[in-house]
Structure formats: C-alpha cells, structure tokens
Amino acid sequence: MTNEKKRPREEQVELTFKSYTPENQELQTYVKEAPKFGPESKNIVDTVETRAEKMKEQIMEEESKRNPELDLNNLAPKKPNWDLKRDLEKRLERLDKMTMIAVSDLIRERLKKEGNIALAVGHDQVIDDE
Fold this sequence. Notes:
The chain is mainly α and 130 residues long. Helix content is 56%, strand content 0%. The chain is rod-shaped.
C-alpha cells in the first residue's frame, strides 16, 4: 500500500479479478466475470473456430448476393454426349451441304429421264420461255 500512496491517481493500475475471488470485502468490487466459451456465453472470446464460422457465413452471403440465379442443374450437361455433338457439328454441316447437292442431282437426273427437262434445269427458265 505504500507504493499506491506514492503514485498519483492517474498512474494507478485498476485491479480486476477474473478467475480469482478475493476474500477481502474491499476487493470484491473489482471482481469481473470470467469469459466463457461457447455461443451461450455473454462474453464470447474470439477463437479460430468462431472466426472461421463468421468468415464462412460472410462468404456464403456474398455468393448468394452475387449469383442469385445460379443453379447447379444448369451447369451440368443434360446429355453425356454433348461434347461429341459439339465437335462433330462442323463436319455434319459440310455433310449436310454435300447431301443436299447429291439429292438435287438425283432429282435432276430423274426428271431428265422422264423428259421434263425444264423442271430439271429450273422453274425460272420455263417462265422465261413462255
């Protein structure tokens, strides 16, 4: 107590008891409740787990705000062969063109054999002749 009298009041350290209950009645006023761990405690101490949970919640909220219409069903392919169809599309376009040319040649040949050459060459020439 002699040290306390020599120091000015501003420099005196305030006493706090968190995990110790003093027997002296004068010191009972300095007792504070010790921090408790867990969600039901009043004084929650930040631990790695609580910080991780808070960060996880923040990230989930931000993601839900950024992509509200993002649906996992839209991301997955509807059929397992979609990539094969995509790769073959260019080849199929070329094949379709060749098929149309071959079909038109076959039709022209048949019309020539039947004797209606005007229809085989084209309908526009028949109109010009008239």
